[in-house]
Amino acid sequence: MKGWGVRVIALLAVVGSYWLVYQHGRSVERAEAATASAQRDSGDRLAEVLGERGERQEEHRRAAAHEEVRAHAQEQRTTADSAAAGADAAGQRLHDEAGKLAATVGCPGQDPAVAARSQAATRAAMVLSDLLARADARAGELAAAYDRARVAGLACEASYDALLIGEIRSGP
Fold first, then answer.
1. Which helix (H) or strand (E) holds 79?
2. In b/e form, how buried is each residue of 70-91, taking b as 16+ CB within 10 angstroms?
3. C-alpha distance from residue 115 to each of 35, 106, 107, 122, 165 (Å)
């Protein structure tokens, strides 16, 4: 009987030692898994931070490009407006000259036939002067509208190109 007790105790000691070795192996495995998980999480956070930084830089680049396009478009609008003002002044001088010419076309005379022709010529010159003034005014309006549309279109195209360049750099 004594032999059996020692054998049972020895068997329990062997089983207990195997159990302790197994538990130690599990704890080492858990520690290694936790380390690997922490490294992976750290890498994920680093990638996320770098991605956010890159996105912020791209956002700043786009904002700067958009502001540059806006400023350039404003300069073009100012130039177009000053050119339109110069054209309006030249058109006004032309209208004044046409009005003066229309006023001087008629020549008073004693002959009723000459006077009638003079009045008809004056009326024709006045109609032509008025037609010239309206055509010039309409041409000025169309030129101003064209200038505004051209500046807006160029600004839109430049803004799109600035965004497209960023898309090409960052890839799909």
1. helix 2-105
2. eeebeebeeebeeebeeeeeeb
3. 112, 8, 7, 10, 73
Separation CA 169–CA 159 (nearest Å): 16
C-alpha–C-alpha distance, residues 140 and 145, integer Å = 9
Task: Specify the long-range contacts of residues 101-109, CB closer than 8 Å, at least 24 apart.
Answer: 101/125, 101/129, 102/126, 102/128, 102/129
Q: What is the pLDDT of residue 28?
A: 94
Nearest-angstrom CA–CA distance, 58 and 156: 19
pLDDT-based confidence at 1, cuts 50/70/90?
Answer: low
C-alpha span between 86 and 140 (Å, rounded)? 11
**143 burial type by CB count under 10 A (0-12 exposed, 13-18 middle, 19+ buried):** middle
* The token pair that represents 131 in the structure block: 């037609």
Other C-beta atoms closer than 10 Å to the C-beta of 43 total 10
Collect all residues with Cβ–Cβ distance below 8 Å to 102 and sequence separation of at least 6.
122, 125, 126, 128, 129
Express each pLDDT in 39-55 by its tens digit: 999 999 998 998 899 88
CA 132 to chain centre: 41
Band of residue 15 on the pLDDT scale cut at 50, 70, 90: very high
